[in-house]
From TrEMBL:
Keywords: Calcium, Metal-binding, Repeat
Keyword Ribonucleoprotein: no
Protein name listed in UniProt: CPNE9 protein
Record organism: Neopipo cinnamomea
Cross-referenced InterPro entries: C2_dom, C2_domain_sf, C2B_Copine, Copine, Copine_C, VWF_A, vWFA_dom_sf
CDD domains membership: C2A_Copine, C2B_Copine, vWA_copine_like
Pfam family, one: C2
Residue ranges of every copy of the VWFA domain listed in the record: 292-493
Residue ranges of domain C2 in the record: 1-109, 110-248
GO biological process, one term: cellular response to calcium ion
Recorded GO MF terms: calcium-dependent phospholipid binding; metal ion binding
Length: 535
């Protein structure tokens, strides 16, 4: 899961003036809604600023952001009541308005800034609230370094030592945690280790002056490695090696105590040290990368007649079909990152009017020139309309719609557009060879594919397409990246009947890999995020 800490700034503007002899003394309270829950819980509140309708709060909110979850937030504007500045109690007379927003909407907004009207006081204009999200970034750098050693102690009876290094990060309580081991260099007292990379957060948790302890060992086959010596440094000290070699004495405390003439057990030299920023999914979204969401729905006859309660497409007056539930769960999360909220939606495996020809990529809105629907509700509406006008038939072919989206993705490959195709299906693929070929080709393009399997069928072919265990290949070509995520819908049917929670779990699992898949595309193409426009 993508977990990124964000600092949230909020600035209300033109608040209601509720005080008689002065302006309001506002405070903003943030409430969060748990995944799949309707309950609001207070997360925190700003300080109170006296006598202003346009406060700039200093206190910020730090929230963890998960791309794959719908994280609903509520900001309540309140005035400090006359009970005193330390009172946590507010009455209805203190309410200045509220705003509801999904965290993803702010992340996806231009420059991570979103302005929303405050509402909730009948007949009154309550002003607006400006929300700004900033990623906490002090732990996002990646270090690459290389070390060598000189004249290490000889530990092996029949040969020289087989040295390796072990890096430890110091903890707040004075203990140490291992964070890296180098490879073993055999039979030498003057080893040169390969360059290696390590995140700054792993080495020092973002604290540049925190102690980093490095032990030098002689490798033994039985695992009882011999201690040669140790030295200590810090990120700040290591970083100075960017302009000069740094030499550390390797000391063995036991030897130092026993031998008066002991100098050291050799030296370790830092040959090179460089730092690069590790770009995140949020960097690309804030830099303007748009997620384009396309839907493809299985209209094959194996789903059953839509008018029959046994059909997977059956919509009762009381409950949506499995297809509609899966579409809504995934779409409602991803639509926050699509600025125009227009989603191309297709069906496959049906005979379509007027001539009854079988189609594997017919537009659900019946508009071949513009197959986009307005919002997820528009997709649902077109899907239900298509159920009334087409004849469910077959076979189950995925390749045409994958190739359709791949063709669109191939038109813009500079990182400004990334496509996500959601396929909802009930069964066995009829064109497996063509589908594998289509996915291998698509793996070189800015796109990901989510497959949700509904119904009781076995989905072995889907697991193969998922490629988590074995990289997908076709005719000797391997997929450049893993771009497919498959889940069976039945795994998310909650026995307790909590449909909201079940669908939140479904969305979380199918979307969890999207950020890494997007990053893998950008990395293989050496595409860096665009800088957000200055204010």
């Amino acid at each position: 899961a993508l977990r990124v800490a964000h600092t949230w700034f909020c600035s209300p503007r033109n608040l209601l003036d509720m005080d008689t002899f002065s302006k309001s003394d506002p405070v903003v309270v943030l409430f969060v809604q748990g995944s799949g829950s309707s309950e609001w819980k207070e997360f925190g509140r700003t300080e109170v600023i006296d006598n202003t309708l346009n406060p700039d709060f200093v206190r910020k909110f730090v929230l963890d952001y998960y791309f794959e979850e719908k994280q609903n937030l509520r900001f309540d504007g309140l005035r400090q009541n006359p009970l005193g500045s330390h009172s946590a109690v507010f009455g209805a007379q203190d309410f200045l308005g509220q705003a509801f927003v999904a965290l993803g909407e702010v992340i996806g907004a231009q420059r991570g800034r979103l302005e929303r009207p405050l509402t909730g006081v009948p007949g009154k204009r309550c002003g607006t609230i400006l929300l700004l999200a900033e990623e906490l970034s002090n732990c996002r750098d990646i270090i690459t370094m290389q070390l060598c050693a000189n004249k290490l102690d000889k530990k092996d009876f029949f040969g020289k030592s087989d040295p390796f290094l072990v890096f430890y990060r110091s903890n707040e309580d004075g203990t140490f945690t291992i964070c890296h081991k180098t490879e073993v260099v055999k039979n030498t007292l003057n080893p040169v280790w390969q360059p290696f990379t390590i995140p700054v957060r792993a080495l020092c948790n973002g604290d540049y002056d925190r102690t980093v302890k490095i032990d030098v060992y002689d490798w033994d086959r039985d695992g009882s490695h011999d201690f040669i010596g140790e030295f200590a440094t810090s990120y700040r000290e290591l970083s100075r090696a960017q302009s000069q070699f740094t030499v550390y004495e390797v000391l063995n405390p036991r030897k130092k105590c026993k031998k008066k003439k002991y100098v050291n057990s050799g030296t370790v030299t830092l040959l090179s040290f460089s730092v690069e920023s590790e770009f995140t999914f949020v960097d690309y979204i804030r830099g303007g990368t748009q997620l384009n969401f396309t839907v493809a729905i299985d209209f094959t006859a194996s789903n059953g007649l839509p008018s029959q309660p046994t059909s997977l497409h059956y919509v009762s007056p009381y409950q949506l079909s499995a297809y509609a539930l899966a579409l809504k769960a995934v779409g409602e999360v991803i639509q926050d990152y699509d600025s125009d909220k227009l989603f191309p939606a297709y069906g496959f495996g049906a005979k379509v009017p007027p001539d009854g020809k079988i189609s594997h990529q017919f537009p659900l809105n019946n508009n071949a020139e513009n197959p986009s629907c307005c919002g997820i509700e528009g997709v649902l509406e077109s899907y239900l309309q298509s159920l009334r006008t087409v004849q469910l038939y077959g076979p189950t072919n995925f390749a045409p719609v994958i190739n359709q989206v791949a063709g669109t993705a191939a038109q813009v490959t500079d990182g400004s557009q990334y496509h996500v195709l959601l396929i909802i299906t009930d069964g066995v693929i009829s064109d497996m060879l063509q589908t594998k070929e289509a996915i291998v080709t698509a793996s070189a393009l800015p796109m990901s594919i989510i497959i949700v399997g509904v119904g009781p069928a076995e989905f072995e072919a889907m697991e193969e397409l998922d490629g988590d265990e074995v990289r997908l290949s076709s005719r000797g070509r391997f997929a450049e990246r893993d771009i497919v995520q498959f889940v069976p819908f039945r795994d998310y049917v909650d026995d307790s009947g909590n449909q909201v929670l079940s669908m939140a779990r479904l969305a979380k699992d199918v979307l969890a890999e999207i950020p890494e898949q997007l990053l893998s595309y950008m990395k293989t193409r050496d595409i860096k995020p665009r800088r957000a426009d200055p204010e």
